Amino acid sequence: MNSANNDIIQSIPFDVDKIRAQFPILNIQVNNKPLVYLDNGASTQKPNSVIETTNFYYSNQYSNIHRGVHKLSQIGTDLYEKTRLNFQHFINATTPSEIIFTKGTTHGINTIAYTYGRKYLQKGDEILISGMEHHSNIVPWQIVCEIYGAILKVVPIEQNGTISLEKFKTLLSPKTKLVAMTYISNSLGTINPIKEIIDLSHQNGSHILVDAAQAIHHLPIDVQELDCDFLVFSGHKMYGPTGTGILYGKEALLDALPPFEGGGDMIKEVRFDKTTFNDLPFKFEAGTPNIAGIIGLNAALDFIKEIGLPQIMAHDKQLLDYCHQQLGEIDGIRFFGTSQEKAGVVSFLINEIHPYDIGVILDNLGIAIRTGHHCTQPVMDFYNIPGTCRASFGIYNTMEEIDVLTNGLKRAVKMLS
Questions:
Q1: What is the value of pTM for the model shown?
Q2: Is 375 a catalytic residue?
Q3: C-alpha–C-alpha distance, residues 248 and 61, integer Å
Q4: The one catalytic residue among 145, 228, 375, 389
């Protein structure tokens, strides 16, 4: 976020108390303490609108979709496809057929990895990723590279948790078929210069997949402006149900790829001698989907749109700055991921205390953070550490909760030193 944008977004009022009132779980106690939920990088809590929409569908509207002429099937189909249209407009896809429903980011990446591999990869081709990728954007590429004899190359990260564009350019080659890169690091919070990475990839003749799991609810994303070939994200990271996600792909590219899974709804005709496949987006949506989850995801998107990404961005930055300021006063603290361009993730260690021990003490105080490698073991290996403590922010978090975290950490240090 540049300074001009910051000046604009910080002028917009933000009523966090009104937002918090929409999340029933924030009223509970954990270990007889008010819940302070700072594990939003792993998953976000759900507002009443998502919970009620999902429950109402199961209680009053449930049927399978796309297959029935009866009223309930038509209602379910309309609600399901309304979600597709909503996301098309949200990320500015060209057509609804470019929006593929998945189980989440991991499913979306695997879909492209396996279908792209079958279509394009040959021995000696290269896939390029970064050293800060989530395991779900490493392992599928390792598998398909092994299958087709391709080579996985990795852009190393710098000490501050950023990617050097110069090193990225050096690793791009005529053999680079596809680049797969995260927009925002889940363990470091780094916001990568994704537009520059996309442009460089295309100049090299490479396709690019963007992992937007941590970005979709933090930053505005316009896929036509970015010009990415594929983009994936999960519903549960953006206040929606688990088991939901979106795979965006340019229509011509998706048309050219073979289906990932076979079954109902992804076919036109099935004969024992030959099967013909359905048009987009249904070619990639085999079987009965998570209908209620996708309908609930629509409610989550409406919730985000009602508040507005500019307000969310401003709130996120305020929490991030305040957390760094408050935690920075703790003796012996070390931060990991110190890029100037960051989203709401703070990873740290204190002295030689194991992150798990800190996490247990904080849990006893009702504070939920994440400890460990955060599914980014190569990042931890780079820093030669076992893992970190990670506080990650959501739309409902407050400055007061960061004060509670700070005090809890000071207490943990006294107990463990």
A1: 0.94
A2: yes
A3: 28
A4: 375
